[in-house]
Amino acid sequence: MPILIKAIPKVNPHKPSEPQKWYVTQVTTSQVDETQVATELADETTLNPAEAIMAIRQLRKILLRRLLSGESVKLGNWGSFSVAISSMGVDTKEQVSASNIKSVNLTFRPDEAFKADLQKAQFAWVDKLAKGHGNDSAGTDGGGSSDGGDDEGGSPL
Question: Does 74 fall in a domain?
């Protein structure tokens, strides 16, 4: 199944008087929950669904424990998980304290193999599918932005 995409116009926030430019953005069709992932995991392994969901929950528990201990966690050729913090800036070193921390976030850095696999994505235009043009693939060049950002790299779709 291809990743669904559509064209959206955006104003450059740094230059609001300039004309809008058009960007490719990903359309998320649904969200899969833990139970659905566990069911698929059970279908592809010797685990039963209850064991699969327990394994997923234990992985979350262990990952969180390690991250909260200040460690990063590398999972095979998936990549690494780590904690990143965002804090307020202050004028002097003496003013720096843990209370300056605004948020704690999770960072995932995919391995090269994982990134390479993502570049094999196939795309289909949502508006063309909706008009009954079938699976009008936009190619596999990985160009444009998949998150609606201001990425203008890659080949035009």
Answer: yes
